[in-house]
Structures are given as structure tokens and as C-alpha cells.
Specification:
Two copies of one chain form a homodimer. In chain A, about 40% of the residues lie in helices and about 20% in strands. In chain A, a hairpin with a 4-residue loop joins strand 4 and strand 5 (about 120-125). In chain A, helix 1 packs across helix 3 (about 55-70) and helix 5 crosses helix 12. Chain A has about 400 residues and is of the alpha/beta class. In chain A, the strands form four sheets. A five-stranded mixed β-sheet of chain A has the order 5-4-3-6-10, with helices on both faces. The first copy, chain A, has a five-stranded mixed β-sheet with strand order 13-12-11-14-15, with helices on both faces. In chain A, strands 7-8-9 form a three-stranded antiparallel β-sheet, with no helix packed on it. Chain A is globular and about 70 Å long. At the A-B interface, helix 1, helix 9 and helix 12 of A face helix 1, helix 9 and helix 12 of B. The structure holds a DNA duplex (30 and 30 nucleotides).
DNA sequence: AGCTTTAGTTTATTGCCTGAACTATATGGG
DNA sequence: CCCATATAGTTCAGGCAATAAACTAAAGCT
């Protein structure tokens, strides 16, 4: 049979393969196995050899490199009953990364150790609507420095970080293309200034994408393919396929908010017509439900909507029902285009899920029967801090997949 | 910065990397460079060393393996002006693969050499509507054997093949899940019987996907990201992203025919409602245009439709205009979900392009402004034989990416 | 204490790439 | 015609990484 080459091979790319690449690959393989052990259980070198298919000798040598780099450490013993007990290995809890977020009404930073444990978190309220990037980033740098030094006092070194921003980004260029709710467009960020001298630097993420990645780590069902729908002012999405974020050729796939759900519908801020966002975005729901969003803060408007729903107010119920129905249409089309069968609701969709669920499932049944089972529509497991955790988690994952970055 | 590991590394997967993998990777690298040279220009070992970054010594050794396996051969000289002339290398034209196709009203087979040249082709008319797989496959095996021995008489050895089928397939299991127009569902194919003892075996492809791959090889603009829309009885699609077929987690991505374009529309054969296929499939267009498709053959109906369009008959014009508009809606949503910006029209969409183009572009402008430029909507460069050529081309590509399969 | 069992290290071997030296084969000038 | 120059391709020693097998280490069991 014709099959793609397994394991290490599989370039077709441009770089020549040398012997050193094998070591890089195997370092990642071993570290990956250590990382995927449940916290509390620490694999020994022998277990890693069995799990990876490498020989004990190779594993010993690879583990030595990882220990030298401080990425992992030895911890206690691992008695097996008979025989010499193995030495447990774990991700070094003295090394961490920082997740950061700029959102409409706050900036935040959190230190997450390599095992994924949140050590410190600080949220600072700040009105970033129609802001200028410079001062916001300066404030975030101050916040990051404070949290970083607090970590340092506890003996934790921050290796790198990730910043999540609500807008379209070009991660390679550290550029925010457009973030309508911040009022940013085409701004180049000085990410290095957030964590000076951190060996891994700072990576940039779209907020919905980062939240989708957080969901990937924290999903109770361990799903590796799903669409995360982020309901904020706009409707965003993060597409996770094969445990990887799928961003498409242009880098902005999963923008489920602008799928056409009503060809005769309203004009959208994106210039299109009948986009999901015009029906299921926060402002659209508030308006349809007869709740002003301008005079209240958005969270107050949401509280008011929930009250109205509890009181079974027809306008509110109809608005949410319509949002659910249209979300179903968009998800039906998504199922066809990327052949995905599971959805995670975040943002206001998570909050409104009790009212959304039924029209959503009916709509899926009508437009894409058999594509989604009812258990395949679930609610975010991480909640509001998803973007923060996802940005940090993604940096950790990059490290686990390419540990040679930290070898001397 | 946090980046995935380049070149050979990049597993995270399960297989350990050994030294031998480096060779496999570099064999593919060298062979890939030879393959991408334009026909007529034959690279020397020295040029390959420069192009790949490998040393001359390594390239010599790798080339020797490829020569021994018969995948490439030396051809003539390559005078550079001064100095010793290099020896040209090319893909061995004495080795080939076979593309095969089962379609509604024919079966076909073609022998394509490793450079992509079609050496032989045979199409055999056969009504496969509501057929049983056994006799069809038997007839195809006879056809394949005949074409294979004709190639053998010309000194060409067939290494493997690919079969394209109009339906959902599971390539790994050699299983056709459902092919409505053939009347097949859940049939296991004996692909090995088509090309007994061929070292690479026979791979199975969905027709639209195979056609999309053919498009990839023959696109004049060299685009590496596009959606191929295949208009047959149904509306299929093949999504090419980064020069790879993107099949999604379930293996059936790009099914653009079942995107919802009219929430209040007609019931679709897939069980959904308002799918693109209910508006833009061949039968749907014929019906809307007032042309019976039952009494005529499908090709006769298409001729009648073209006549009606030429005569500016309002019903026909309106039917095609509506199909174009709805295709635009589907493509707008696709642009959002997978962030693709270029479309290739195949099947009846290619035939009807003069009438479709304008409503399609208007629709794209209305629903996804800025996503597709007018030049980004083009017509298939390969025409009817796309699936056949694509299946063969894909097998060739698998070989070029994993040549070690043929080493002793 | 001695046997058994399992963990981890040491050592010889093999495979592959690299760099440098070397051979082979062309052009062009005296 | 012969030799300098330039380019192609091969040979050979060196280094790195994985492997297999032998060896050392550290426990439990009898």
C-alpha cells in the first residue's frame, strides 16, 4: 500500500536531514511521554524505554540531556514490587511559562508550570476599548514583570510566554492585523519587552484559538477534534484537528462567526451579509431581546438577559432560540467542510447553553443529520480564563515538542 | 520564538527515530528535487547537492540507491561550460503507475510514467448505475491487465496504481462507504487483484479528491491552496491546503455540496435541508431549467441545457444564475471555515462557467467581500480525466515522498 | 545469605552524514 | 600540443546517534 513515511521521516521540505535531527526527534518523543503521564505518576527510564520503543541505553542518554537542561527532574523512587526500583521523572516544577491576555476590559497574566499547574494569576481591570497599543502593552509589561518576580521569589523561572489578543493576528510577524473591539489595526507588538531575556521569547495568539487550545488540554472526554465556538462581542472560533490548531492557509480558519446563515439577512460588520454573528453575537442577541447594551455594561446586559429568560419573557426566549437555530446551521456547514463532529461552546454560548441546546440540536438534526450526536455538543471546561491558559499551554507544548531549544 | 522543529524532526508521534530514518528522509529530499525539475532539464549530483544542502558525498550515495532501485536513471551529459560536465538525472521513464476510475457510465485505466506523462489510456463504456461491485471490479481488472501488458510490451513496468471512485471511501480499509450513483454501500474492494504483484499495491481515492490532486499538478498558476468543486450528479469537493489534500479528522472534508445555502430550502438526499446540491447539482439544474434528465442521458440533457442558454431561454438562465448565486454562498462560508481564497470549478460547473461566473462573483462579493479576487475563481485545467490522472499522480507522489519502499 | 528480578550504565558495533583530499573530465590559453 | 583552471564526482577518516549485549546496582523473597 502507498503510505506516508512514518516517524521521523516525512519532510519533502527543504532542510537536509542529519544525524542530529534524530536526537531532536527522540528528545521530543521521550519528553512527550513524560509530559503525558498523569500528575502524581512519574515514569522511570525503563518505562519510557518500553513506551517509546527506544532502548534503555538511548533513553538514559536522552534523559540526561533533559535533566541537564533543567526541563525535567528526578523525584523519589518508583517501587515496582520486585527488583531495583526505578527513579521517577517529572517535568521540572521550577520552570514555568507565562500566559498573558489583553481583552476589552482587562489585562491579565498567569504563571503556569510545565506540568500545567497555575502558580500565580493576576487580573487587572482596564478599559481597552478604542485604546492605543503602546500604553496597553506598557501596562502589561509592568504586570508581567511583577508576576515574574513573584514567581522568582518562589524559585520558579519563567522560560517564555504567550499573549492572547481578541483579533486577527500574524504570529510570525508579532502583528495584530485587526482587533475591532480594542480599536487596533495593523499594529506591530514588541513582544520581547514583556519577558526580557526569556529564552523562549513570547508568542502571539488569537484569543479564540488560544481558548480552543486550553479546551484541548482540559476536555474531560479527551477529544482531539472539535470546533470551539467563542461567543464574545463577536463570534469567534478555534478549530482543533488531530490535537492541533488548524489555522488554514491564510492563518485564520475557524471563523465560524461569518458563515452565512441567512442569505437574506442583515449586513455584518465584516462587510458580508447574513453572517452568524449578526444573529448570535452578544449585541445581536441583546438587541433582538430588547435589552440595550449601550447604556449598561455588557456583563449587566447579560445578567438582565438571564433574568428575562428565567422569567420566560417571549422576546428574550425567541432571540436565544433563533441564535441557537442559526448556530446549528453554521455548525452543519462546518461539519461538511472540515468533517468535524464535535463542538465546544464558550463565552456567552456557554452561559446560554440551557436555552440554546434544544434549538441547536434540532437545527443540527435538520441540516446535518447524523453528523453530531447530542453528546458531541458540550460546554467549555475552562471558562473565562481559557485564552490565558491556552496561550501558556501552547508555549509549553512547543517546548515539549522541541526541547532541544533549551540544550546548551 | 516558539517554533515547531524543522526538517526531519516533528514527530511527537509514537515511533522512535533511528539513524535509518535520516536516510529515508534524505532519499525523499533528493528524489523530490529531481522530480520537480522541469522535463527536459536534468539535474546533476552537484546541482542536487547545492539545492538540498547535502554534501556531494551524501548526494552521490543517495543517488546510487535510487539508481539501483530503478527509480531514476542517468541521461546524457550536462555541460556547464568549463570543467567536467555533470551527469543528468531523471525519473526513470521505464517505470510507471496506473490510474483507474470507476464512474457512472464508464471504467477507465491509464498508465502514467513517473514524470507524469500519460503513456496509455483506455476508456470502456459501461453502465454502472445501480451495479454490483464484483462484476464491475472484474471488468476493471481485465482492462487493467490489458493496459498493463501493453505497457510491458513497450518496456514500461507498472509499480502500483490508484483507483478513483465517485463516493465516500475509507482508503486505509479499501472500502467504499457509499457511492449513491453506483448503488454501492459498504463494499470492500479487492484492490490487489487489479494489479497483481505490483510492489506498491493499489490505493483508493474519492473521485473529487483525486481530481483536486490532478488540478494541483496541472494548475497553470501553481496554486497550492484551493477548493476544487466537482459538479457531477452530486456536488463534491476536494480541499487542497499546502499542496496536500485535506480530508479532515473523519476523512471526508470538503463536502461542499452539503453546505446549507437556503435554510428554508428543499430536502436533500443526504437527509439535510437546503444543501447546495439541491440547487446546483446537475439534476437540480436540469429540473429547474425545465429539462427532463430521466428520458435523456445526462450528457444529452447537458447539451439541451447549453442550447437553451445560448438561446437565452429565461428558465434555463434563471436556473444557472441561481446555482451560481448559491455556489457563492457556499464558497463564502468555506472561505471562513478553512480560510481558503481560491476555487477551481470542475465538472458541469466548468462547462457552465460562462453563465455562472457573474452571479457567483456577485454572490461572493455580497457574502464574503475581499475573500476571493476575481482571478481566484478559475476553471479546471485537466477536464474530465482529472480523477484518473489525480489517482495516478497521487501514487507517484507517495513514491517520491517515500522512495525507500522500493529499495531492496 | 543467596537467588531472583528489575533498573540503569558501559562498551563494541553499525549506519549515516560531513569535510577534506583525491580523481576524472571538460575548456581555453600559450 | 600541453598545461592551467574549473567543475563533477568518489574515497576516506571522523563524529554522532542508536542498538544490542554484557555488566553493575538495588531491591524483594526464601
Amino acid at each position: 500500500m502507498v503510505m506516508p513515511a512514518p516517524g521521523v521521516a516525512g519532510s519533502g521540505g527543504s532542510a537536509p536531514g542529519s544525524v542530529g535531527d534524530v536526537r531532536r526527534s527522540n528528545l521530543a518523543l521521550v519528553l512527550g511521554r513524560i509530559a503525558e503521564f498523569p500528575p502524581g505518576a512519574h515514569p522511570s527510564r525503563a518505562q519510557l524505554a518500553a513506551a517509546t520503543g527506544l532502548t534503555k541505553a538511548s533513553v538514559s542518554s536522552l534523559v540526561l540531556d533533559l535533566l541537564d537542561a533543567g526541563i525535567i527532574r528526578e523525584i523519589g523512587f518508583n517501587p515496582q514490587g520486585r527488583g531495583r526500583p526505578g527513579v521517577g521523572l517529572e517535568l521540572n516544577p521550577g520552570r514555568a511559562v507565562m500566559g498573558m491576555e489583553v481583552n476589552v476590559d482587562y489585562i491579565s497574566a498567569a504563571v503556569v508550570d510545565l506540568a500545567g499547574k497555575v502558580l500565580l494569576r493576576e487580573v487587572q481591570e482596564r478599559d481597552n476599548r478604542n485604546s492605543v497599543d503602546g500604553p496597553v502593552m506598557a501596562a502589561l509589561a509592568v504586570l508581567a514583570a511583577r508576576v515574574r518576580s513573584a514567581a522568582g521569589e518562589r524559585g520558579v523561572e519563567v522560560l517564555g510566554g504567550g499573549l492572547a489578543v481578541p483579533g486577527l493576528v500574524d504570529p510570525a510577524a508579532a502583528r495584530v492585523l485587526t482587533a475591532p473591539n480594542l480599536g487596533w489595526a495593523g499594529v506591530d507588538l514588541d513582544l520581547g519587552a514583556l519577558l526580557p531575556e526569556a529564552p523562549l521569547g513570547v508568542a502571539l495568539f488569537n484569543e479564540a484559538n488560544a481558548a480552543a487550545l486550553a479546551e484541548l488540554r482540559h476536555r474531560p472526554d479527551g477529544a482531539s477534534d472539535f470546533l470551539f465556538v467563542s461567543g464574545e462581542v463577536g463570534v469567534g472560533g478555534g478549530l482543533v484537528i488531530g490535537s492541533e490548531l488548524f489555522t488554514g492557509p491564510g492563518g485564520h480558519a475557524g471563523e465560524v462567526g461569518h458563515i452565512v446563515v441567512d442569505p437574506d439577512g442583515a449586513r455584518c460588520s465584516c462587510g458580508g451579509t447574513g453572517c452568524l454573528e449578526t444573529v448570535a453575537g452578544q449585541d445581536a442577541i441583546f438587541e433582538a431581546a430588547g435589552i440595550g447594551s449601550v447604556e449598561h455594561s455588557r456583563s449587566a446586559a447579560m445578567a438582565k438577559l438571564l433574568q428575562a429568560l428565567d422569567a420566560r419573557q417571549p422576546g428574550a426566549l425567541a432571540a436565544v432560540e433563533r441564535a441557537g437555530r442559526c448556530l446549528g446551521i453554521a455548525l452543519a456547514s462546518t461539519a461538511r467542510v472540515v468533517n468535524i463532529a464535535s463542538v465546544v461552546l464558550g463565552g456567552h454560548f456557554a452561559v446560554l447553553e440551557p436555552w440554546l441546546r434544544s434549538p441547536l440540536l434540532q437545527s443540527l438534526q435538520k441540516y446535518a443529520p447524523g453528523r453530531y450526536a447530542s453528546g458531541q455538543v458540550s460546554v467549555s471546561a475552562v471558562g473565562e480564563s481559557g485564552a490565558l491558559l491556552g496561550a501558556a499551554g501552547s508555549v509549553i507544548r512547543s517546548l515539549v515538542e522541541a526541547p532541544h531549544q533549551l540544550l546548551s
